[in-house]
Fold these 2 entries.
Entry 1:
Amino acid sequence: MTNKILINFATLAIGLSLSSCGVEEDADIKAARELTNRIVPSLSSKIEFVKIQSSVDTFAVGTHNGRVKIEGNNALSMSVGLNNYLKKCLGTHVSWYASQPIEVSSELILPDEDEPITGRAAVRDRFFLNYCTFGYTFPYWKWKDWERFIDWMALNGINMPLAMTGQEKIWFETWKSFGITEDSILQSFTGPAHLPWHWMANIDHFDGPLTQKWLDDNENLQKNILARERGLGMTPVMPAFAGHVPKSFKNKYPEANITLRSEWSDFQDEDRCWFLDPSDPLYAEIQKRFIAIQDSVFGSDHIYGIDPFNEVDAPDWSEEFLRGASSNIYSTLREADAEAKWLQMTWNFYYDSKNWTKPRIKAFLEGVPDDNLILLDYFCDRQPVWPLTESYFGKPYIWCYLGNFGGNTMMVGNLQETNERINDFLANGGENVTGIGGTLEGLDVNPFMHEFVLSKAWNPEMTPEDWIDEWAGARGAKQNQSIQNAWDILGKEVYIKGVSVGQGSLTDARPALKGRTGGYANPRYYYADEKLLEALDELLSVTDVDNPAYRYDVMNVTRQALGNRFTSLLEELVVAYEKKDIDLVKAITNQMDEIIVDLDRLMATNPDFSLSTWIDAARSNGQAPEEKDCYEHNVRTLLTTWGYGGTKLNDYANRQWSGLLGDFYRGRWQLFSRELISSMENGVPFDQDNFRTKCIEWEEDWTNSTAPVTKVSDENPIELARAYRQRYL
């Protein structure tokens, strides 16, 4: 659609002036104006919102009577228009983190009157979030965090957010209605950070139980979340019954067709989950009660997330069973809500492709009629499933960019390839294409990539080069060319390879001379260090810009460069050890220790990359000291051992955060250095297996500790970065 046609849409309402005339303000305009008041209040009186008619989400940003005029067909479209104005005209970026301030110029800059900024959604649905995000990022968030994040989602055009907060209260009431005791129900829940894997029927009990206070607090939080999301025109996706029942339910209903789920990630048998066959009459009754209770507490938007077989085996792999299972699940859902649609992630089709063969996938999908099953193609940045399944055999589906596992802090992403994959999807995905979305496991250090995907949904013709320019402009390039130069390098030379599980600098890894002794912390990267340092030098040459986005970028690139240097030091250490040069080994281990200490100091300048922030938030949810300690243990465990000591998920959620660096990671490397030097002094080979045993014991002690960790500081990350560039890089 041309700009001229877009702007000539008939207006339905004139923005700010209506309320002063006694006319009730349009709800969409009111929502967009209130969002503006929250994030950039100084601009509120300078922006006019106008509602237009359009069957497709669309916006236009222009000028009218000396003010900015933002037209859109609904609140979300207007919000996306506002975001485009902030980035393209004011050079302002709005972070998804509430702690990062939003700074705008006091001088009003109007869009070019002859070339308004326009956008038109290429897809109907823009999905966002992952069950795992509610563990790796959200478990201890308060309303102030959610308020900014929901605004960020609106600014980026997301209209289908996953909304899982507070569901434990609904399950509590549901199981209680079936005669399960309150204590037994609370005992079945995991600790807060591990709840996503309880929802997905991977584990029960671990690091629990929950308390009534937790259930009540999160019920109230979810009410606020849903009210704001719905007010902005979003359609939140909430859960429905997927077959997971507590063990006490099996004990009370022994005649029911309930089976023990398969083992998951080395967890003990006592933590395994129980599955009620969808053909059992109790399944429909549980579904009906759960939906009714959830609707009475939270309301309904009629799209439900159901994932019955995520990373666990189906009780029966026959096509007949799979077709019957999905058919029964859907029929119980429709009996509970006549307007219901089912949303399912297809991660399991990729993750367990050995069992989820093409005929089995087809059989499972055939169990749900027409377009009532919406699928999330979960990991399209690595392996889209739609080309392997004839575009999901006609079922509606959403192309998703995952981009992050476990909240890892690694600069990673392939801008060019992601662009090509989205273009291919839009051109060849089929008539059942419905959306584009993001399924990141945790908020990370690559908003550059995540926001690109969301922006592409509104501007499919946008090239990677266009995005680099737009992004750089919102980070300070309008004031200084060196910021543009830095992002040209980062976008073209550093963001060249997609994400892998557990990616993180070797600072985060369980120490080893060669190979890995933990399950994760994969330090591989595919760009030249010289390019990263070239971008850092461009950033550090800037002296006339000091906005939040620029400070973040300096911190982030410096963090990555120091992590890369640590990896090269380990390589030097191995050579020194093999040469039996103990003095050089001591010198290198000392420098490795210094880098971890200084990285810890650098990351302490940002509260969003601080373990102390998480611990403080977690402890604030408890009342008695032992309850506070339990929540802290939950945080410490998820980010380090993940589960029991020595399991294969160890360091899955590794991240370069202050506190983790200066306390946990440093402690492990100091233990390693002492053991290594001791073996050299005693003339015996370093015993990696013995060290691993000691390290696991040390890790378990650390997760059980409540000793203070590094606190957030007010040091200037730019000054630290300049010092570290000279000292180490």
Note: Confidence is low (pLDDT under 50) at residues 1-21.
Entry 2:
Amino acid sequence: MIVCIAEKPSVAKDIARIIGATSSKDGYMEGNGYQVTWTFGHLCTLKEPHDYTPMWKSWSLSSLPMLPARFGIKLIEDQGIKKQFAVIERLMQAADGIINCGDAGQEGELIQRWVMQKAGAKCPVRRLWISSMTDEAIREGFAQLKDQDDYQPLYLAGLSRAIGDWILGMNATRLYTLKYGQNRQVLSVGRVQTPTLALIVNRQKEIENFKPEPYYILSTIYRDTTFTATKGKFTNKEEGEQSFALIEGKPFTVTGVQKKNGTEAPPHLYDLTSLQVDCNKKFAMSAEMTLNIIQGLYEKKLTTYPRVDTTYLTDDIYAKCPQILGGLRGYETYIQPLAGKKLPKSKKVFDNSKVTDHHAIIPTGVPAQNLTDMERHVYDLIARRFIAVFYPDCKFATTTVTGKVDEVEFKVTGKTILEQGWRAIYAKDVKPADDEEAKKGDEERTLPVFTKGESGEHKPTLTEKFTQPPKPHTEASLLRAMETAGKLVENEELRAAMKENGIGRPSSRASIIETLFKRHYIRRERKNLIATPTGIELIDLIREDLLKSCELTGIWEKKLRDIEHKKYDAAQFVEELKAQITEIVRDVLKDNSNRRVTVLTEEDLKKKPAARTKKKEKTPDTNSAESSILNQQCPLCGKGIIIRGKTAYGCSRWREGCNWRKPF
């Protein structure tokens, strides 16, 4: 009898139906020479400190660092898990062979390997490796089963990650809790969560310490078109006024009209992070909510495997694309122009060298029915993005008009869409959310017809403005920062190049953010992520860059990927971590200060934050200051304009949820 083990009961039932195991038993399905059973995600975990020695049961600084000579696993303490494991153990010990049907990724490999080890399985093991749960994909997967040994490096990478998190998390959490937690607050410290918290705290400090500085923009209106001085900002008011005096009352002359045609390629397909970013921007979904929804769509056979970090497809998917497009119900208007034509095969979409385990997230072609509103939102993003990559480039014309008054030069640029191309897919949105920040200010604007040499009257203005602080992190910006080791990168090509040194894996980032909420390290203010006093103080306490450095943690992530690709030794990785945590413990124990962190309760987090005691530098309250701030673009949402309220300036989009305010 061949035993198949899947990661969830729902997945097991789909597999059982395809291979003919249709007889239901207690904890498994049977038939056609197969027994199909399942886990509930993790059934096993690494042993806890007290499982190695009773001395490690109580929390004590004298017992640190805790470094087992050999790590072991155990069943998770749960009656349901114990019952299901007993079924798995009995089936595996009598099996002629096992097929590992776990999720095709590092975590899925670790889950099933641990169960097989704990069950004492001795028979040969093969691996089902598929990227979608359609009937066709399952059949193809069973026709092309892989040898389990092919995935040994994947398992070693997952095991190294788990052991590394244990070494750092168990030791550093006890260390900081005992040293600084007032015996009341558990100070959770982790290899990924602490650098992520540091990103939020550091951004918050930048905002709080920001001092607005005035600058001046010289512009002029000629033929109802605003031209801006090419010199840019004047940091000195007198210098701006001198330039203003030079041009006042003198004619404006057009010195050049340059037209240039350009093209814009379709956006890349989605990986998990870019999908989470777009869902947060467009629908205010948390990263965890997006992951849960896309996982559900995958299990409903509507989309491919979600926990991916590539935006490319393999060449073999190309032949299936017409069939996938044909299955997208409700998108016929967009698909019709592609019908009957050979689909383009761009290297920006199909590239085997850019895909390791799984390709980008795309629809499967199974018609989508009975979706919730949230599921429909996520599915729509994926479907439109998939259709768009087969559309032609967007063609546009850029017109740049230069002018001169006396010795002062001016310029204005307009952009006209000539052929929408792929942008037709996003006609309602104008542009996909993923590119919104990168294209800000690059919207379509048609200019009047100007002729070189023409001249006439104009109306100059010198506008006082103030520099703006960086924006607080949202989940969207935080995910991008985690992906690129703290550097906010919107350019897709550059972002892809920096992924090698990102913090955490795409599949784990959502849970890391949720952990920060649970630990009372951060809270939400609308879409913004705000660090609590506990979170700020914890980062201030940690002097070891090892624990909070994005770049260094990114290098650790690269080592784990190198283990997966046989370029680095797993044992060396663990030994390095042991040496590092030993040094951290030694350094913290040397701290003779009496520092403690603020302890927060759930009730504290519900209270409105107290006004800050630190005096912030006020923007000058003058007529020129008011005129410079009114009707300017909102620095928070970038879409509304600043208007005057009863007690403060605010964003015109306050009804849509923008909470930017500046008191008088």
Note: The radius of gyration is 29 Å.
